[in-house]
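Appendix C reproduces, verbatim, an entry submitted by the partner laboratory led by Prof. M.T., so that reviewers can inspect both the input and the predicted structure.
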Amino acid sequence: MPVRAPWRGSAPAGRIAWLAVAVVVLVLACAVSLAVGARGLSLATVWQALTQFDPADGDHAVIHARIPRTVMGLLAGGALGMAGAAMQGVTRNPLADPGIIGVNAGAALAVVTGIYLFGVSSLSGYIWFAFGGAAAAAVVVYLIASMGRDGATPVKLALAGAALSAGLYSLMNVILVSSQDTLDRFRFWQVGGIAGRDWSVILPGLPFLAAGALIVLCTGRILNSLALGDDLARGLGQRVGLSRSVTALGIVLLCGSATALAGPIAFVGLVIPHAVRLLTGPDYRWILPFSLVLAPALLLVSDVIGRVVLLPGEVPAGIMTALVGAPVFVWLVRRGKGAGL
């Protein structure tokens, strides 16, 4: 697929300009997230509530109640966007997302096990089971793919992830069909969303998200080398196995934390890196920060649409990201001008 990116020859100036535009878009998405809902408020009221909070003002109270939801969208969206971009680089698979290395399946089985065996019923309880399950599944996938002479190649990672996911989902379904109570509790987490999360859910995930983001943001050059193929990367002095392991650790921290906090959210980590390549080309030193900014914007906009499309009810963000992201992804594929991996 031909590589086509605007301003490729103009140093980083054009990309910096686009990144500034992306930051503005994200700020607007945050403002709309605070203003829009069952009770619509003006942006002026949002600004006043943030700068001159009055506890006796009902509008201000509503806006402050929406802040954790918006922060959750920022954290989960940024984590999924960066993890999706890094995952596509590590596996050299343009369709890679958190499901390809068993993260979603591992987290889901762990949450179901926590509900069924230990009676966990709160989101703050789900997070630890989900993160542990996601991390364990990713480690198992990598160990399986590492067997053999060539180590953890992209094809072996994809095959091991698909096989393990199928097995874990089968075990999960065995538990769910045998326990209606477990199914009733689990289905609210399974659809994915950022509603109903408070600071008690968000704060435990911050250290993992910060560590994962720091690792992945520092792997731009590594991913650029891996994109050339393992042999060329070794010729450039890259220790392929170690580089892939370090990047995979960052991906697991980001995916595991985001999935634990918000549930399995589809398409964010798949669509955003493809859209970003239209602006940056194949350089992961730019793809990663752009994904960090634009992915939460997509998640927040999807969440806002879900709040108003079926008033007085809501459609979870995990469903809306699929509805919003799928047509965009199809358009990107049919356009056929995205940068290759």
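The chain has 14 helices and no strands. Additional entries are available on request from the coordinating office.
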